Amino acid sequence: MHARLVTVARTPDQFLAAVWLSVLESAGIDAELHGAAMGGVYSGIGQVASVSVVVREEDLEEARALLAAPAAQQEAGPGSGRPAAESTGDS
Asked: What is the pLDDT of residues 26-52, one digit of tens each?
């Protein structure tokens, strides 16, 4: 049985998505980026260019807390905003 994957954050900024991925993996949470390859092709076109950070459903709350922590925001740099936490999942 495969774990259900859910989106914990979404951003049009591939670098920011990579930072969030690093934060989660450093905490021992398995995470993936979805849509990263499309960002370069469709950069600047909102949802088409967005990169989603996905985690297992059972890690969602911990992942949200980690990405909301001040340290994750500092790593992302000033003006990066907060992750758009979502509970809708990717299958």
From this structure: 999 999 999 876 545 555 555 556 899
β-partners of residue 53 are: 9, 33
Residue ranges per structural domain of the chain? 5-75
Give me the residues of the chain with pLDDT under 50, please. 1, 39, 78-82, 85, 87-91
Reported as type and span, the H/E element at residue 56 is strand 51-56
Structure pTM?
A: 0.69
Contact by Cβ (8 Å): 72, 20: yes
Topology at the third CATH level for domain 5-75: Alpha-Beta Plaits (3.30.70)
Given the DSSP bridges, would you call strands 31-34 and 51-56 parallel, antiparallel or unpaired? antiparallel
* Residue whose entry in the numeric block shows the structure tokens 């922590």: 69
